[in-house]
Write a structure and sequence with these properties.
single chain; 12-stranded mixed beta sheet; 6-stranded mixed β-barrel
């Protein structure tokens, strides 16, 4: 039973610890707030990591859900889509999957309300809902014959759309809705919280596999989701899929360039965010380590007042283990109180995080406190209590009993192993400075990268430019002439508005091209892979509206027709990549999809400058909408002479005067859109900058505490020096020299760690090297300045000491 005697004494130890902590309330508050902040920041980041990366997907057996993607056999690039024509063959020739489904994004316009609304929809095959284990709240799933053309005018509503547009009408099943000016019958409503494949999905319609898409093996436009059979290993399923890929490549020439690969669904959803989130979790762990080092230093300083107490305990027969247990109980009690503060911090922090996080991060709705997070808080609190308490506890549990009982005992002579107490505190400060240096360098790299992103030359003038998206999916605009007439009327009416200098449109936002095609110039390409470029379908005034530069030849005249010879304008990157050393002007190329280059022949008539997004410029071809039929989606650009948003309502009215049933989506300024694309790097820089600031603050507090303690311990020595003629500047330099030695050592260790750790930021930074010398220099100056400022007050206090009082100091 003696082995469990500590349990009997635990309540007594806790009561004694509470009395000790209440005797020094300021010390207790500082400790709880410091530790609570460190634990809270770590727990908040763990909530994010847990919600996005760790928490399982909300489907039955989520680990068996896989995406099938396409990997190029030439350059090994991966795209998340597959060929719809390949899908039935893959489904029939594989045995490793319980279910296989195909899905893709669709845009439908909901009319009948006060304003038309563009809906993000999902076109799916009938197996998708059973594959995900999802059942409609009302109604039924799609029937197999409803994926046939002519019978596919049925829809399943999402819960938010059902509530918002139809008031939660439980009799909605069987009623009709108008989608893109066609009647669809509502056959079901999905339950709240289900929104596959994205939170924006408003409804689901059948995916029709007949027609050109279902027969062209070169069109990789749909995504494939499968569920592994129970007990089937991923490697075995991939081996089977490799066999099917090889068979498809032999049977269809368009499949020779691609092979199919299995990727876990969770990895496909959140994989690109894994590195950034884990780096931020590691950064905030550094903050907690600095906080623990700070508290350990603080407890060492406080231990001087308890040396006599511990000596008396030993003199009365207490063992080292009993004293250590008492001290650790106090530390753990402090840590658990700090955990309560941390949970309060997390409660508010998760709400703030949801408002400042970039909109594109998936699974933000999963961030919250669950059982795993609570265990994390408890475990981290106990670990922190041990970390900051082990050194002071070890020191206090083996004091020099005879010396401690003497009147006027000075703790500077008490040793911990081979360290003196103040040497231990200095070592802790060195560690704090080193960790703060790592965070400051990381934050500096992200901030420099963000600055470069904000100052990159985009290749056009974004100011005074209004943009919006129009998607005409109505059957009355299937005819190319109808589309041309519709967009031409929009250009004419909007251009006539006062304050508008020019109007144009393109098939995608200027910095976000969406359609990549192959081409054949009739000459061997200097590149190993098949020639590819982004294709933009634009209006004649596109280049003038954006403010792009013509570098050679001409742009579109506006007199192009569907029957006249097709012409194309290319950018600098296209000419440099595929016509190295040759003039591309007047060269004829054949534009097609992938390896199917039996498409339109067009002559290159002009070269324009690159549009530069936040990576390398891409090869691009521009063709006129008068000659190439678009998919129905256009990004409208309006150049104004006044503030763009002041004309937003007038522009909207003019567009609706052409066709009231076509919704206008995401009307915004181009400057705002560019700022939105930078939200993720800005968010990373903001968080790491906050962590670095916290680390510097905690390190400065640690330096201040150590130097104050050192000055207090050396008061007698300082008095002797000043009595012997030392000037105040000499005393000031004596103290600052000590902190410079500590800071210099911490800086050297921190730079070494930074050179190693900042390499992990390579994929998160833009036009900045991980070992950027300017960033490291600025970070070093910031850390050294913070250390000197923290030591300045103790140094000034020492230099102003009265020698007579100092000589009498005990």
């Amino acid at each position: 039973m003696h082995r469990f005697a500590w349990l009997a004494s635990l309540p007594r130890d806790i009561r004694h610890g509470i009395r000790v902590l209440l005797m020094d309330p300021m010390f207790t508050v500082v400790t709880v707030l410091t530790l609570g902040l460190g634990i809270g920041a770590n727990t908040l980041m763990f909530c994010v990591v847990n919600g996005i990366l760790l928490r399982p997907l909300p489907y039955p057996d989520p680990n068996r859900l896989m995406n099938v993607v396409s990997v190029s056999t030439t350059d090994h690039r991966m795209i998340e889509s597959v060929s719809a024509a390949d899908f039935p063959l893959v489904k029939d020739q594989t045995t490793a999957f319980d279910h296989s489904a195909l899905y893709g994004r669709a845009i439908l316009n909901l009319t009948g309300g006060q304003e038309p609304e563009q809906l993000t929809c999902a076109a799916i095959t009938t197996d998708l809902f059973p594959l995900l284990g999802a059942n409609p709240l009302l109604g039924r799933n799609f029937l197999p014959d409803e994926v046939a053309r002519g019978k596919n005018q049925v829809a399943i509503l999402g819960y938010p759309l059902w509530q918002r547009q139809f008031g939660g009408d439980r009799q909605i099943v069987g009623k009709s809705v108008v989608l893109s000016e066609r009647l669809y019958t509502v056959i079901g409503v999905m339950p709240s919280g289900f929104a596959f494949p994205s939170p924006e999905t408003a409804l689901w319609v059948p995916l029709v596999l007949s027609g050109p898409e279902g027969s062209n093996h070169g069109w990789r436009t749909r995504r494939m989701l499968v569920r592994l059979k129970g007990g089937t290993k991923l490697a075995a399923a991939q081996a089977e899929l490799n066999t099917v890929s090889a068979r498809l490549a032999r049977q269809f020439p368009q499949d020779q360039e691609w092979e199919l690969k299995i990727v876990p669904l969770k990895e496909a959803l959140v994989g690109r965010y894994r590195l950034g989130l884990l780096l931020l979790q590691g950064a905030v762990a550094f903050v907690l380590l600095i906080a623990c080092a700070n508290l350990a230093s603080l407890f060492l300083s406080r231990g001087r007042a308890r040396e006599r107490e511990m000596a008396i305990r030993f003199a009365l027969g207490a063992t080292r283990g009993r004293v250590a247990r008492q001290l650790l109980t106090e530390n753990m009690f402090l840590a658990l109180i700090s955990a309560c503060v941390a949970l309060l911090f997390v409660y508010f922090g998760t709400r703030v995080f949801g408002t400042i996080a970039p909109a594109g991060i998936p699974r933000l709705d999963q961030i919250g406190v669950d059982r795993l997070v609570l265990w994390f808080v408890v475990g981290l609190s106990l670990l922190s209590g041990f970390l900051f308490g082990v050194i002071p506890t070890t020191r206090l549990s083996k004091p020099d009993k005879a010396a401690a009982l003497k009147e006027g005992f000075q703790t500077d002579s008490t040793r911990l192993g081979f360290f003196k107490a103040h040497h231990t505190q200095s070592a802790l400060v060195v560690a704090e400075i080193a960790l703060a240096m790592v965070l400051t360098c990381g934050a500096g790299l992200l901030l420099r990268s963000l600055w470069k992103l904000g100052n990159v030359s985009l290749g056009f003038e974004p100011r005074n430019l209004l943009t919006m998206d129009l998607t005409v999916t109505s059957h009355k605009y299937v005819d190319p002439d109808a589309q041309i007439a519709y967009f031409s009327q929009i250009v004419g009416r909007v251009a006539a508005l006062p304050g508008v200098s020019s109007v144009a449109f393109g098939s995608s936002f200027p910095l976000s091209p969406s359609m990549s095609v192959g081409f054949d110039s009739g000459a061997p390409s200097p590149q190993k892979e098949s020639p590819q470029a982004f294709l933009e379908i634009v209006s004649p005034d596109y280049f003038r509206t954006l403010g792009m530069r013509l570098l050679g030849g001409r742009v579109f005249s506006g007199r192009e027709t569907e029957t006249s010879a097709a012409v194309v304008v290319v950018n600098q990157s296209f000419a440099r990549r595929y016509f190295a050393g040759r003039d591309p002007l007047n060269t004829k190329i054949r534009i097609g999809w992938g390896k199917d280059l039996s498409g339109t022949e067009a002559q290159i008539v002009g070269i324009v400058n690159d549009l530069t997004p936040h990576d390398e410029p891409w090869p691009a071809m521009y063709v006129s909408y008068l000659q190439f039929q678009s998919t129905g989606h256009m990004n409208v650009l309006v150049r104004t002479v006044t503030k763009p948003l002041a004309l937003a309502d007038a522009v909207r009215r003019q567009i609706w005067s052409v066709d009231r049933n076509q919704p206008i989506v995401n009307l915004r300024t181009v400057e705002h859109e560019i700022s939105t694309t930078m939200s993720e790097p800005r968010f990373n820089a903001l968080l790491l900058g906050i962590f670095a600031l916290l680390a510097l603050t905690l390190a400065s507090v640690g330096i201040f505490g150590v130097m104050s303690h050192s000055v207090h311990q050396r008061t007698h020595e300082i008095g002797i020096r000043m009595a012997l003629g030392a000037a105040r500047t000499d005393v000031l330099w004596l103290v600052l020299r000590q902190v410079m030695v500590v800071a210099g050592l911490g800086l050297c260790i921190g730079i070494g760690l930074s050179l190693y750790l900042t390499r992990m930021l390579r994929s998160l930074i833009f036009e900045v090297q991980p070992n950027d010398s300017l960033t490291f220099l600025m970070a070093s100056l910031i850390v050294v300045s913070a250390a000197l400022l923290a030591a300045l007050r103790p140094a000034c206090r020492a230099s102003r000491a009265d020698p007579m009082l100092a000589l009498r100091y005990e």
